[in-house]
Design goal:
about 375 residues, four-stranded mixed beta sheet, 11 helices
């Protein structure tokens, strides 16, 4: 297919940096044999077919910059695996602030925190007009965790502008019945909520929990503790912003248990910000259970990943699934893609089942 997938992005942080780098990296000669993609060709669309035509942020160091420069601006700190991203012609516009950052971040040094731009915030009408003018087809939400009001603002803009939505954060839109119905009535696809990394803490924890169930092990207690030094983890030091995040991550694991654990027997969530780790995320998982003969067993795992690139390939696939749905006239939640790519989808499946359903959707064998 020769068509471009015209994408708008809300939030030009580390995840957007990894996404933009990945579009260039895999579209610039890396080709089908490149490492790190679940799909190079997805329904006829390749990563290089994605074009970011609109971007919104609230940081003074990003607003007004070409997207290719803004992705390197502080406080972004992710790995530079494609440092030669050319100018895009897409200038980052001032976004809507609302609850898009945690107030405590004002008190940290500039290399770690937001510097809110002194620029007029757009109205919903202005964002909708800009989305239409740029021809955006898919809006990706990469706002910070806890941006409940800001996420709903951009979801409203997507509906009015006629854009599909990929909701990468744990604000419940695709998994909220009222929002899902609104996207269905508008015949606009939505994938959400809260992106799973390619091979991160949640997917590993889910698969191990499912394995315990398949192998007859009774899971009694489990925790997942995470540390990183990026703005995502600094933002989450404000625990009041974590309700949806903890629900999303916990339910992702609970959905794979044979018998749901009591709340005191499962702890899954962000743990702390360690500045020198930058975008490296370290995860610690412990699982305690009972095996044959009612004998105790336990498993401990340490996982270290570059956090933002770990989700970028999943984001590229989610965008392309939305484009396929647009091409086919399918609106509302994409249940298989959401279950495969997201932690808190409208419907939970095991990951192998979600994979099979998503592949069938890509091939056009199911409408979803």
């Amino acid at each position: 297919m020769a068509d471009k997938i015209r994408v708008a992005i809300a939030g030009v942080g580390n995840c957007t940096s990894a996404l933009v780098q990945g579009i260039h990296y895999y579209g610039n000669g890396a080709g089908k044999d490149a490492i790190g993609l679940m799909h190079y060709d997805l329904g006829g669309y390749c990563p290089g077919d994605i074009e970011v035509v609109a971007a919104y942020d609230i940081d003074a160091r990003k607003v007004g910059q070409d997207l290719a420069q803004a992705i390197w601006a502080l406080p972004n700190c992710t790995a530079r695996f494609a440092p030669d991203v050319p100018a895009t012609g897409t200038v980052v516009r001032m976004g809507k602030v609302l609850d898009g950052f945690a107030p405590h971040m004002r008190h940290y040094p500039e290399q770690y925190a937001f510097v809110v731009a002194d620029a007029p915030e757009p109205t919903k009408e202005e964002v909708v007009r800009h989305l239409k003018e740029t021809g955006a087809e898919v809006l990706c939400n990469y706002l910070p965790v806890g941006s409940e009001e800001a996420t709903r603002f951009y979801a409203e803009c997507a509906l009015e502008a006629g854009c599909a939505l990929v909701n990468n954060i744990p604000v419940f839109i695709a998994s909220d019945a009222e929002w899902a119905l609104r996207f269905q009535r508008a015949n606009l696809p939505i994938v959400g909520d809260d992106i799973k990394s390619q091979l991160g803490a949640t997917i590993v924890h889910r698969v191990l929990t499912h394995l315990f169930k398949l192998r007859g092990i009774k899971l009694e207690h489990t925790y997942q503790l995470n540390t990183a030094g990026n703005t995502d983890f600094l933002n989450m030091l404000d625990r009041s912003r974590l309700y949806s995040k903890k629900e999303s991550k916990t339910e992702a694991v609970q959905s794979q248990t044979r018998i749901r654990l009591d709340s005191e027997d499962i702890h899954i969530g962000p743990s702390d910000w360690v500045a020198w780790q930058k975008d490296n995320k370290v995860c610690f998982i412990r699982m305690e259970g009972r095996q044959f003969g009612d004998l105790p067993m336990n498993l401990e795992l340490r996982l270290s990943v570059e956090d933002s690139p770990n989700s970028a390939g999943v984001g590229i696939d989610a965008i392309r699934c939305c484009k396929l749905a647009l091409d086919r006239g399918i609106g509302g939640p994409l249940y298989s893609a959401s279950a495969y790519f997201m932690k808190h989808p409208p419907r939970q499946f095991s990951d192998d089942e979600a994979y099979r359903l998503t592949e069938a959707f890509i091939r056009g064998e199911r409408e979803d």
